[in-house]
Amino acid sequence: MADDDSSTGSAVSSDGGCRPMDVMFLRLLVEKAVLAKGASAGINSISTSKRSLPSTGAAKHDTDPMAMCREAIQEYLRHTAMKHSLQQQKAWIQPPVLGDVELDFFQAARQAWHRKIDCRLNLIITEHHMPLTLPSTSPNSATLPSREVFVDRTRPEPLKTSMFVYDHQDLLREYLALRNPNMREDAYAPLEFAGPRFATPSLSALRSLLHDLNPSLPQEAKIRISRRCWTQYNASPNQPSQATAAPFVGGKHKPSLPNTNHCLCPTLATHAMPYITSGCPVAQRATLWYMATCGADPNDYALKYDELWHEIRQVRRPVDHLLAADAKYQTNLDDNYFVFYDVILEVMIALIRDPALSSEYGCTSLGADVVPNGIVPFRGLCLFVAPLAFIYPRTPQLYRVFVKLYTRYFRLLHTLNEYPNGIARLSQTFLDLMQVRLPHLLLHLKGLGVNPLEIAFPWMFQAFSGYLLPEQVLLLWDRIIGFDTLHVLPLLSFALFAFRQRALAVARTKRDVEFVMADLRSIAVVPLMQYALFARDIATAA
């Protein structure tokens, strides 16, 4: 065995001596080799070999210990080669992990998904005889209706409030139907309810990424926003900022924050992140979120918002009725959001009709007469706006922050994409966490015919808005903005299963599982994420 000799030579020199590498490893191999033979006299030979092996250097010693080392190493190499051969024969069991590359089959599936959306939207418009454009004023009226009047006159009729183009179930079916043509169909057998595998962060990578969630660190920052500006923004937008005194907050020195009413600079987002990761104070969340998302933008959002609505008020579009139906349906289900119906509908109409949002954010190829910027309203779109209504009393500022959050994060949750923060990889991350940390629960659910992704997918699709209390949703979104990642969504989804694993273990039907995971109103998100991320043995900790 030439390979064995060469491999053995790396640990044992040609003259019978031992190279100064890892003597403890050789001793361990000797012990395993002797114990495997079952010789009663082997214990004495082990102690003899331990005394014979040198700690350093390459001196010559008796041949018996080294012969035992060679035999043990060769046996180990033969065992490794056999194991590797078996793994090669069964390599198809584990699907290959897809990296950050453009996937032809994924692009084809995305194009087919967009065609389905186009057909559904055309069908809704045709069946209800909805005109593509309708002037918002009568021929005898020379003035446009105000923004409030336009929103008040936007009704779901002739649509029903339950009418929608697509929802999370449609997208989940498309994801589960994805198959890599370069892979055998049997490769999906182990889980049966997962799509193609993607490169997802490991548990250690998640702990490093979300390090500020460590239970030893404070999660409620008590900060003070400085009223002194770093720079006079009126002089030059690119003028470098001058830092003020850094207060001692949460065990760390953090820079004071400027007053965004007077100055803006590109470094505001960087300085706001350390505060957001540990949870924003309620009174300062609006300022911190605006600094983190819009800190580098000019402070003219109110003027642009008025200009946008001047164009919107001229004509009505079919999507206005879809937006009104979704807003009416969702706000009627939640007592926390029904008072914000007018604000939610106004912001959603502005989003769909905003020409500044290019078609890359949309999922349709229909013309501008149907969908002005390509963004098709789906069931639950208004739930991304509703939590922001609690912290932004001014609609123009709310819209500016919402657009930033939508284009950077939320649009990835309801489209087929292979981005690291896309819904496909988030779903794979959730399943990987279940398989690694709760394999017994995963097998139990599989035996009941329950796909845990069917339960967790709606949570991630809506970023938990509508499922948690508004206060907990805002705390969760603090971490999304602060850590600049959506991986807190699969982490929290996994944490909910881990938290209720005892109740799930005694479930006997799919209906029992759905009943256990139905109500999330009493959940506190931060302790659960800490528990799921940093608990040593989560299977026995619950």
From TrEMBL:
Residue ranges of domain Rab-GAP TBC in the record? 279-484
Record-linked Gene3D superfamilies: Ypt/Rab-GAP domain of gyp1p, domain 3
State the InterPro entries in the record: Rab-GAP-TBC_dom, Rab-GAP_TBC_sf, TBC1D19
Entries under Pfam families matching the protein: RabGAP-TBC (PF00566)
The name on file for this protein is Rab-GAP TBC domain-containing protein
User: Which species is listed as the source?
Assistant: Salpingoeca rosetta (strain ATCC 50818 / BSB-021)
